[in-house]
Amino acid sequence: MTSIFPKVLEGFSTHIKEPLNRNSYILMINSGVLSSAGFIFWLVCSRGADANATGLATTAVSSLVMISIIARFGIDSSIMTYVPLLEADNRERFVNSSFVFSGVNAILLGAIFAIFGGRIVAPELEGVFQGSFGVSTFIIASLLLTWGFQFDSLLISQRRSDLALIKNLILSISRVSLVLLFISRMDYEEVFLVWSGSIFVAMIPTMLFFVPSSNGRFVPDSPSFIGGVKSIWKANIANFLVSVVMNFPLAIGSLIALSKWGAVDAGRYYIFWMIGAVGMIAPVSFSSSTLVEAKGLDTKEILLNKRHLVFCVFSAICVSLIGLTALPLFGEMFLPGDWVAVIPFAASSIPGYFFYAQLSYFRHKEFLIALVSMGLGLVLSFLGGITLLPIVVEQTGIVFFCSVSLFAIVGRVVSEYLQRRDGRLANG
User: Fold this and answer.
1) Cβ atoms of 78 and 235 closer than 8 Å
2) Which of 157, 218, 365, 413 has its Cα between 20 and 30 A from that of 303?
3) How far apart are alpha carbons 327 and 325 in whole angstroms?
């Protein structure tokens, strides 16, 4: 036994030194920090505000996330893909173009949703958009959240996942501190304001110190924007779809839940997803790290890493147990047996590993049709399922698990076909 432990320790030490693995684990810690902060934030809200206010606040936040996804157009993934391959001048041009492009999108989309869309899609949220202050806050939050995701991607692309982690630690600490300070006098509008304000706090050191230390100059300018839009558009169609897959089930799902079941169940849906989706941190992190390191990997390494798969299984078990202990803490929003609804969300990390591995493979090989089909198929099957099926909010996790499993299988079949096709062409 004494001889085994040093060998295991040495093996893990070698494993963690590999850039793919090191970045993967830092990204998981990063996501874990954000998830933990999110859990504490909404837990405090559920104890300090009523269930209706919490539900409306979660939906307002989800709307902001939705706008950020569309505004980025997958640029954050393209930054991770292309920035490591570019020379300094081209890298600066690409980064500046990307940030200006997404920033303009975020401001326009935030303004449209705040002024018009929110009242049409979710009239219950009108309080968030009251007056010029409410509209301005939503627009600024849209911009900062959009750029926040991109700054994370930029730091990861430079193999400075540690700085992305520090940035998100600042965000998490400020978010929890602010909600603890003000919760006694908060309605859902104030909850949204606190959530958004923490982004601003985290962005100050990121823009002043973290990004310059890893990437050099970041000065958005018109020539960069005009010259880079065409390349950005081409590069990001595939990456946009991946971002949609990763985030739309929460963003759009909350709006669907609000419309179908009401504010209280919209909040319940968000919290089910928030806890259960922790299980998806592992496959998404492995996929993101693979994206950066893909050029040095062969097909088998992209499609299957047994250590990563085992970690996903372990993650699913742990998240299910977390749901058992965590949901009762939210008070009146949940009944004792509601933790079971978390299990299918958590279990989705297992088929999710294979699903995201296929996506990484398709992106690496630039199989756009396969990527589009996989991404849209999953999103549409899940959102269509929770919209059209006669289910209650506790059953949404089952729909998600089935959707992920289905398209993990479809992706495997397609990747096998493409590998055989490429083999025939190479021998041909």
Assistant:
1) yes
2) 157
3) 6
DSSP 389: S
> Whose structure tokens read 């104890």?
47
DSSP annotation string for 194-216: HHHHHHHHHHHHIIIIIHHHHH-
Q: Tell me which residue of 43, 55, 402, 400 sits closest to 260, measured CA to CA.
A: 55
**Residue 383 host element (H or E):** helix 368-388
What is the rounded distance in angstroms from the CA atom of residue 261 to the CA atom of residue 160?
42
Per-residue pLDDT reduced to its tens digit, 371-423: 778 888 888 999 999 999 999 999 999 999 999 999 989 988 888 887 777 66
Give, in degrees to the nearest 5, the angle at Cα 200 between 198 and 202. Answer: 70
The CA distance from 347 to 145, in Å, is 29
Q: How many angstroms separate the CA atoms of 304 and 282, rounded?
A: 14
Structure tokens at 128: 């968030």
Instruction: Judge whether 360 and 415 are in contact, CB under 8 Å.
Output: no
Phi–psi pair at 269, nearest 5 degrees: -60, -45
**Which pair of structure tokens corresponds to residue 8?**
């295991």
Q: How far is CA 363 from CA 63, 87, 95, 100, 239, in A?
A: 28, 22, 20, 24, 8
Q: State the Cα–Cα distance between residues 80 and 344, nearest whole angstrom.
A: 30
**Of 132, 100, 103, 102, whose CA–CA distance to 115 is shortest?**
132
Signed CA dihedral, 96, 100, 101, 106: sign only: positive
Do 130 and 185 touch, CB atoms closer than 8 A? Answer: no
Q: What CA–CA distance (Å, rounded) separates 401 from 382?
A: 9
**Whose structure tokens read 């501190």?**
177
- Contact (Cβ atoms closer than 8 angstroms) between residue 91 and residue 215: yes
In angstroms, the Cα distances linking 15 to 104, 281, 424 are: 42, 19, 34
pLDDT value of residue 68: 92
Whether the pLDDT of residue 294 is over 70: the answer is: no
